[in-house]
Amino acid sequence: MTNDSSMPENFNISNGGGxxxxxxxxxxxxxxxxxxxxxxxxxxxxxxxxxxxxxxDELICPVCGKPKAGDCICPVSYSRCITAVYYKGTAKTAVLxxxxxxxxxxxxxxxxxxxxxxxxTEYARKTDLAVPVPLSPPQLRQRGYDQAELLARExxxxxxxxxxxxxxxxxxxxxxHELSASExxxxxxxxxxxxxxxxxxxxxxxxDDVLTTGATxxxxxxxxxxxxxxxxxxxxxxxxx
Length: 241
Ligand SMILES: [Zn+2]
Ligand SMILES: [Zn+2]
Prior knowledge:
The chain is of the alpha/beta class.
């Protein structure tokens, strides 16, 4: 198995620049997702932050995406989980800013890391479709953007993998973080459903922001498999320690 748990070697923090980035920077100054400092228009984050962030490593189980020591939740219904960072320190701040404070540029950086990691695996060629874990309609209205969908679009950039919203989510009755692990699983199973579309014999890349207990990914992956998908792999920005 390829070791896709660790950061790709030679990862480049330049965003490629270009006229569009330059012009955008005049209107929306480019900021580091980790420390919020202003950045040159062609950078995805500052070098110090890049070196300090806790990128996930070989201590993460490549199958479930949780730390191997003690937290591994295998067996799970998906067969691989690619992660970018540990949900800790500045990485946690970046994810929270991305989810709740419209710092959507983080999708470009994390999307690139996850893209590069995906490309290191056999799934680079096998993946047929990317499906984001959806928000409920009220959550989407309130936030104005779907962070998992933006991330899915960045991960698949430069590939011919389409992004399709094939899952649906009902408004949660209780906020997930107030629930225990087993309650989360029951709540997830109740919340998510299949929205329709052709999944037959397809390998699906399921995309979400944070991997907490793994219940959401496992439940969503089960739904995709039940509706015809051949295999599901996952990509998430952060894994909770
Ligand atoms: Zn920084
Ligand atoms: Zn595992």
